[in-house]
């Protein structure tokens, strides 16, 4: 049975539904993903042969394709939130885990491009953790 997954952007303008199953979930530490997320890594789920439907706000969705690469990022042009991207070369929809409102149905498959890890993100298991802003 094909699963359905729902998601949206931070400002709520864009809502989407994905019909299909995720095969993999990669935490990508490459330098492009550091730039495009502003963080240590991207967290993307891959759904081959799936169908992406924009339920609302499709006109607010913009896609940036990094020249001469497969790196692409879709985002809401009102709030900048990451949104799913069609990766035609691999017949897959790439879904940023944080864009999903429905539960993420799997744990990460692997970290990739770890040779490019930001130096500050290497040893995080020993830093203090708080439930709220301290
Ligand atoms: Zn938005
Ligand atoms: Zn990357």
From TrEMBL:
It comes from the Bacteria. One of its GO terms (molecular function) is metal ion binding. Residues 5-131 form the CENP-V/GFA domain. Transmembrane segments: none annotated. Keywords: Lyase, Metal-binding, Zinc. InterPro entries: CENP-V/GFA, Mss4-like_sf. Belongs to the Gfa family. This is Glutathione-dependent formaldehyde-activating GFA. It comes from Aliiglaciecola lipolytica E3.
């Amino acid at each position: 049975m094909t699963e359905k997954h729902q998601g949206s952007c931070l400002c709520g303008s864009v809502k989407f539904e994905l019909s299909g199953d995720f095969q993999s979930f990669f935490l990508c530490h490459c330098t492009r993903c550091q730039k495009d997320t502003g963080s240590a890594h991207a967290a993307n789920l891959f759904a081959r042969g799936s169908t992406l439907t924009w339920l609302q706000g499709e006109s607010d969705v913009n896609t940036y394709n990094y020249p001469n690469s497969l790196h692409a990022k879709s985002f809401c042009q009102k709030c900048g939130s990451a949104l799913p991207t069609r990766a035609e070369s691999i017949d897959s929809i790439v879904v940023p885990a944080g864009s999903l409102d429905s539960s993420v149905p799997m744990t990460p498959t692997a970290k990739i491009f770890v040779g490019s890890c930001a130096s500050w993100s290497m040893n995080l298991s020993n830093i203090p953790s708080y439930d709220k802003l301290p």
